[in-house]
Amino acid sequence: MKVFRSVKDLGNLELALKEAMEIKADRYKYQELGKNKTALLIFFNNSLRTRLSTQKAAMNLGMNVIVLDVNQGAWKLETERGVVMDGDKSEHLLEAIPVMASYCDIIGVRSFATFESREDDYNEKILNQFIQYSGKPVFFMESATVHPLQSFADLITIEEYKERKRPKVVLTWAPHPKALPQAVPNSFAEWMNAADVDFVVTHPEGYELDPEFVGNAKVEYDQMKAFEGADFIYAKNWSCPGVTRPEDYGKVLSKDMSWTVSERQMAVTNNAHFMHCLPVRRNMIVTDDVIESPRSLVIPEAANREISATVVLKRMLEALK
Ligand code: AN0
Ligand code: CP
User: Which protein residues touch ligand 2 with a CB less than 6 Å away?
Assistant: First the structure.
């Protein structure tokens, strides 16, 4: 595997899930694979889970790891070509990428949507430059539009906790005070469409996800109706994807607190498990009661980030041989 950004990059999903379970049973099984290989993890944005779980995954495989927080101690990077660099940016991404690549074998990058331009975000302007100019395998640690390590961990978690063969999984929008990216819901929709689940998306009007990711998934605008009989509730806020009105891209269109996931909505589910990628704002996205209930999977879900990252790094290491 040279690039990891989509469910398609894993090939057969059933086999990938089997591999994940094998690694979960013995996470140090491939410790020789990464000997004298270096993973470089580059963060343009904050992170707790991705930072720690991906380092742990690399260590499981015997790799060396370097972590760079671009905004803390590195030079401020220009990303546009043709700019006269007389401002506060001291270095261009076009030099920084090959330099960083020269010190490692595999690169992970986190770079969120900036919401300055829908076109630039959805064209993955930053991540594509890493793919093009690094000459190294690149995996997405949440880019402008996708968060595949999260969705892979989410799918592993659903596999582990499902109580019927084809569970009903509901992705619900929930309120948040700030504009958040669409990366998590985009990837979650993409991965659920590829998985053997009955998938429903619910959100207020105007929050329609990009067709590239949501595909033909069922969209239900009535949250209570969507929750009926659900086995898994996956909550997440996202800002306006700008599908129906491009001028609203990245805007907060609603802060409707009736969408906060509470016992009221959970009561109509099939005793559903609650999921969220974290970090989560309590009593905005979900009430204390629901996130603390025995049906909440937020902690095992986060723990599975180590497993999804180990599978991805393992496959990239195998492809280096
Ligand atoms: C980010 C987001 O919504 O994409 C990261 C989630 C994993 N969340 C925040 O910025 C709060
Ligand atoms: N879920 C997730 O990616 O968390 P972090 O932003 O803390 O890495």
Answer: 47-50, 142, 150, 277-279
Res 58 pLDDT > 90: yes
Looking at the domain covering 3-146+305-320, what would its CATH class be?
A: alpha beta
Domain 3-146+305-320 and domain 150-301, same fold? Reply is: yes
Q: What is the mean pLDDT of residues 262-282?
A: 98
pLDDT of 88 over the 90 cut = yes
Domain 150-301 architecture: 3-Layer(aba) Sandwich (3.40)
**Ligand 1 touching residue 181 (CB < 6 A):** yes
pTM: 0.98
DSSP 252-316: -----GGGSB-HHHHTTSSSPEEE--S---BTTTB-HHHHHSTTB-HHHHHHHHHHHHHHHHHHH
Q: Above 90 in pLDDT, residue 304?
A: yes
